[in-house]
Structures are given as structure tokens and as C-alpha cells.
Amino acid sequence: MTKPTIFSGIQPSGHLMIGNYTGALKNWVELQDHYHCLFVMVDLHTISVQQDPAELRQHTYDLIAMYLACGLDPKKNLIFVQSHVTEHAELAWILSCYTFMGELNRMTQYKDKAARHQANINAGLFGYPVLMAADILLYNTNLVPVGNDQKQHMELTRDIAQRFNARHGEVFTVPEGYYPKVGARIMSLQNPDKKMSKSDSNSQNYIAMLDQPSVILKKCKRAVTDSDTDIRFDPENKAGISNLMSIYATATGSTMDDVQNAFEGKGYGDFKKAVGEAVVAMLEPIQKRYHEIRKDETSIEKMLQVNAEKARELARPTLEKVYDAVGFVKPLR
Ligand code: TYM
After folding, report:
1. Which domain CATH number covers 266?
2. Is the CB–ligand 1 distance for residue 28 below 6 Å?
3. Per the structure, how many domains does the chain have?
4. pLDDT at residue 47 is higher than 90
5. Nearest Cα to 129, choosing from 107, 145, 111?
């Protein structure tokens, strides 16, 4: 029996932080043995916010090295760069003709980013979710492991696929989102009402995957919490403590009940120290592998070349099916 397909991606828009790991990468590693997996560096998405070209190039290599360092096996998974497979952009155009302005206008990620980048509210930022739908639908994807912040984009992807199928027959597989039980939405350390983000201008708000142990311990110690004393999971009234509990639970593989029981009667200071130590223990082996892998750009480039070819072989038939369905004349080959 063929394995169901998983597709997911991360933008090379800066150094990864622990939310990207707990919301996405960590689960990819757990799923890689059971699915046919495609994991992508979505660089086309990244330029919807202005990037320095040299940095974007470096961040793309950094991200590949991080995928591998986190435990993704390049023999089991198809790891590639989105811009190497032109079918993504081609399908995005077609799908944009099946997506309504009103739908895109409702996207909260668009609203957030538009508010943060007022001098550059470009059409790419607005159409971003259509490109994400194209990524997913090109490969007959069944499951998309992402953090909670991508739920709205996943719903839109399903709507677009269903709308297209209703007009043209069963062309697309309608995918499902897959969200982890804990760690699907890690919040900012200094402002726990806001999600943790790798593009945050204040580095105190996030723990980067490559932060030094001393920096991680300090950031956890300074994390904003309430003036209460009990360690209890209550995201509405105790956002800071609940966030640290989620971080601790994912870092140690424990449940929220375990965390609550383990720290009953203990003070916030002890708890913050334990959270910092757990994150250091989770990241240390990843950091070590990362620095080894990142040195060897030639091996990375070879892998990307082979994988882009394989991805194209999978993407082309879907695109041809779509072109045929919408009525384009087939070119003679
Ligand atoms: P990106 O690059 O913003 O984030 C990558 C992944 O990390 C998750 N994530 C979080 N999880 C928990 N807590 C957080 N604070 C947190 N912040 C980010 C995201 O949910 C995501 O899974 N649009 C996507 C990239 C994309 C994509 C795709 C994903 C493009 N095409 C196709 C899946 C399938 C994004 O901006 O991710």
C-alpha cells in the first residue's frame, strides 16, 4: 500500500525559533517514517516581505541545515527549495483565479503583516495563501503538519480545492491540517498575548534554535509572568506561565498534568530555571549537528539538485491535469 503524503514548509526568513520546532519540525521528524514526506524551504513566500538578497540566500542554506540537524533524514524525505520547482508559481496563478478577494481579505496573517510592513503592502503578501494552497495541492497531499497560526490558510486551501473540484471534477486531493497537542502555538516571552515569531525585532521575545545556553537561561528567567504564585495551565488568565508550561512540556515530552504536579508548591524562579534547562537540553544536540552540517554547502547543493528534479516529476502531472481541466491547449512535445 502506498503511504499517504505529507507536505509542509518553512520560510527562510531568519533564524528559526523554538515555536517553529515545536509547531512544525519536531512533528515532521516523528511523522517521517509513516508518510511519504515533502519538506520545503518556501523562498517564494519569503519575498512577500522585503529581504536582503545575500541574507535570504544564507538563510536558505541555514534552514536546510536545520531541517537535517533536527533529524529529518534526506533519504526518507524529499527536501527541496520551492523556487527550484516552477510548477508552484504556475499553479498559484491558476488558483488565484479561483480565490475571492473577500477570502484573502479575511486572513489574519495578512492583516498582521500588512500592519507591520505598511510601506510594502504588496500583491504577493495579499496572494500569499494562494501560493501556499498551490504548494500543498500540487502533490496530492493528505496531511499538512503546521502550527495553529496556519489553520486559516489550511481552511482556505481546502475551500479552493473543493471549489475547483466542484467545477472540474476530482482534480485535487483535499488535504487536512495536522496540529500538535502541545506546542502548536508558542507565545512571545515578553508579551505572552502575542505569538512567538522568528521575524520579531526584539530578540528577547523568542528563543532562537541557535541561542547559546547562557542566553536561553537568561531569556527564560526574564520571561514575563503574572504576580500570582501557582504554576497552573490557564492561558487566558496566566498567559506567561501557561506558555512556559507548554515550552517545558514539549522540551521534556511530558503532559501538562505532569508539569503541574512536578512544580506544585514551587516558586516561579525555580520553574523558570527548569524551563531554561529543559530547552538547553533539547537544543544542545541539534546545535551540535547543525554546525557540522552547515559547513558542507557542496553536499547540500547536490541534494537540492537531485530533489528538485524528483519534486518536478511529481508536480508536473498535477499541473498538466489542471491545465487540461481549465481548457488550455496542450503543446506538442
Ligand atoms: P512560517 O515560516 O511562519 O513558520 C513555519 C512553521 O512554524 C509554525 N510556527 C509556530 N508554531 C508554534 N508556535 C509559534 N509561535 C509558531 N510560529 C510559527 C508555523 O505554523 C509553521 O508550521 N505559511 C507558512 C509556510 C508555508 C507552508 C506551505 C506550510 C508555505 N507553504 C505549505 C505548510 C504547507 C509559514 O509562514 O510558516
Report:
1. 1.10.240.10
2. no
3. 2
4. yes
5. 107
